[in-house]
Design brief:
Strand content: under 5%
Protein name: DUF2236 domain-containing protein
Low-confidence stretches: none
Mean pLDDT: 90
Helix content: 55-70%
GO molecular function, one term: oxidoreductase activity
Number of domains: 3
Oligomer: single chain
C-alpha cells in the first residue's frame, strides 16, 4: 500500500496521486462560490484513484480478440463495422457483434433533440469557443502532468503542436456538426477511432521502458478520460461565460448532454457521466486529486502549443505576406493573454509561458461579447443564422491551423503505440 498518498482503496495509489488531506484544502474564494463539495469525499477520492487502474473493458476485450489472430484482417473488420455497420461484415465474429451491439444502441438517457441543441450552442460560440478550448481546456490541462506523460510517450512532442491541435480540432468539429453524432456521422465514427487508439495505447505503452504503471497508473485510464470529456463541456461553458457569452440554463444542459454522449461513446463508464455544468465542474476538480504537479512535460507541451499560431496559414498569406506574419504575432499574443485570464504568473511559468503577460485580450473583447449577446437576446436573433455564422468562423480557423496539411484525425505511425504493422 502506498501510504504516502493515504489511499484506502482496492489497489495501491500510483505515486502521481496527491495525498487526500491536500485535496481538502480549498482556496477561500472557491469554497465560497462552489461550497465544500468542490473537495472530494474520501469515497470519491478512492474511486478516482482506483480508476487510474481501469481502462475501457468493452474496447479492451475486443482488442484482445483482434490481437489474438490476424490483427490487420480483424482490424479491417472493425473499421468496416464502424463505417458501414456490423451487418456489412460477412459472418461477423461474435466479439465484434458484442461490441457493436453495445455502441449501436442508444443509451436510455440519450435525448437526441437536446444533443442537437447542444451542437447549435457550440456552433454559435464561433471562434471564441475554439479559443477557450485551446487556451483554457488544452493549455491549462498541461499543468496536470499525470495526463501529459501518456501524451508525450505517443510522440506528441515530435509531431508538432500544430498537427496535434489540428487533429483534436477536427474531432471536435466532427462531434459538433449537426448529425455528426448520428450512427454514421463523422463525429460518431471518429470517436470510435479515438476509442480504438486509446485501447491500443493502453495495451502497448505499458510494455515500453518509458512507462511506469506504479507512477502513472495505466495509460488512457478512466480518470484521465473523465477529465478529458469534462474539458469539452464544463470547462468550455465556464470559459465562455467568463468571456462575456450569455449561456442559459437550458443551453448549458444541452451542451453537457452532447459531451455526456461523446464521453459514453469514448468508453467512459456511466457512473462518471454527468448532466449539469456544476456537477461536471466538481467532478473535474475531484479528478485533479489524482494529478501530479507540473513537470518538464508541462513546460514542453505548453511552450509548444503557445507557438502554434506561427504555423497557421490563412488564404491571403501570399497576397499580403508581411501582414500575414504580423497577424500571426497578434494571434500568438492574444492566445497568451486569454490563457493569463485563467492562470497565475507561477502557473504561466510552469507552462514555459512568459509570466509578464496581462489579460488584455479578454479585457478588450469581453464587453463586446456581452453587448452582442444582450442585443441578440433582446432582438430574438435567428438561432440558425447565429449558428451558421459561428460555424463559418470555426471552419476558417480550423483550415488555418491545418494549413496545407490534410484535415484528419490521428493516424498512428510506426512509432506510435497504437500502430499495427
Amino acid at each position: 500500500m502506498n501510504t504516502s498518498n493515504n489511499h484506502t482503496g482496492a489497489r495501491p495509489a500510483p505515486t502521481r496521486v496527491r495525498p487526500f488531506e491536500i485535496t481538502q484544502k480549498l482556496p477561500r474564494l472557491q469554497k465560497m462560490v462552489f461550497g465544500k463539495q468542490l473537495a472530494p469525499t474520501r469515497e470519491r477520492y478512492d474511486q478516482l484513484v482506483d480508476a487510474l487502474w481501469q481502462g475501457d473493458e468493452p474496447m479492451d476485450t475486443l482488442l484482445d480478440w483482434i490481437m489474438e489472430g490476424n490483427a490487420r484482417e480483424r482490424r479491417g473488420m472493425y473499421d468496416k463495422a464502424v463505417k458501414e455497420g456490423i451487418d456489412a461484415v460477412d459472418n461477423a465474429p461474435q466479439p465484434l457483434k458484442d461490441f457493436f451491439a453495445l455502441v449501436d444502441r442508444d443509451p436510455d438517457w440519450l435525448d437526441r433533440e437536446l444533443l442537437e441543441e447542444g451542437v447549435g450552442v457550440v456552433q454559435s460560440l464561433g471562434e471564441f469557443g475554439l479559443y477557450i478550448m485551446r487556451d483554457q481546456a488544452l493549455m491549462v490541462g498541461y499543468l496536470l502532468s499525470g495526463f501529459n506523460h501518456a501524451l508525450v510517450a505517443t510522440g506528441a512532442l515530435n509531431k508538432g503542436a500544430s498537427q496535434r491541435t489540428g487533429e483534436t480540432l477536427k474531432w471536435w468539429m466532427d462531434c459538433t456538426e449537426h448529425g455528426g453524432m448520428e450512427r454514421f456521422g463523422e463525429g460518431f465514427i471518429n470517436t470510435l477511432h479515438v476509442r480504438w487508439v486509446h485501447s491500443m495505447v493502453r495495451r502497448h505503452l505499458q510494455t515500453r521502458k518509458e512507462w511506469d504503471n506504479n507512477e502513472w497508473g495505466i495509460p488512457a485510464n478512466q480518470t484521465d478520460m473523465v477529465a478529458t470529456y469534462l474539458a469539452f463541456g464544463s470547462v468550455l461553458l465556464l470559459g465562455v461565460r467568463l468571456g462575456g457569452v450569455i449561456i442559459t440554463p437550458h443551453e448549458s444542459r444541452a451542451v453537457m448532454h452532447l459531451w455526456k454522449y461523446a464521453g459514453w461513446l469514448m468508453g467512459v463508464e456511466e457512473k462518471w457521466l454527468v448532466d449539469s455544468e456544476m456537477e461536471g465542474f466538481r467532478l473535474l476538480r475531484h479528478t485533479q486529486a489524482t494529478q501530479s504537479r507540473p513537470d518538464w512535460t508541462s513546460k514542453e507541451l505548453g511552450e509548444a502549443l503557445s507557438k502554434e499560431p506561427f504555423d497557421r496559414i490563412y488564404p491571403w498569406k501570399n497576397t499580403f505576406p508581411r501582414l500575414h506574419k504580423l497577424y500571426l504575432k497578434y494571434e500568438y499574443h492574444s492566445h497568451l493573454s486569454l490563457t493569463r485570464l485563467f492562470l497565475s504568473r507561477e502557473q504561466m511559468s510552469a507552462l514555459g509561458l512568459p509570466a509578464w503577460v496581462l489579460p488584455w485580450y479578454p479585457a478588450m473583447t469581453t464587453p463586446l461579447r456581452i453587448a452582442r449577446g444582450v442585443y441578440q437576446r433582446a432582438s430574438r436573433a435567428d438561432k440558425r443564422t447565429l449558428e451558421k455564422n459561428g460555424r463559418e468562423q470555426q471552419i476558417y480557423r480550423m483550415k488555418a491551423v491545418f494549413g496545407e496539411r490534410e484535415h484528419g484525425i490521428i493516424q498512428p505511425d510506426k512509432n506510435h503505440p497504437a500502430h499495427i504493422g
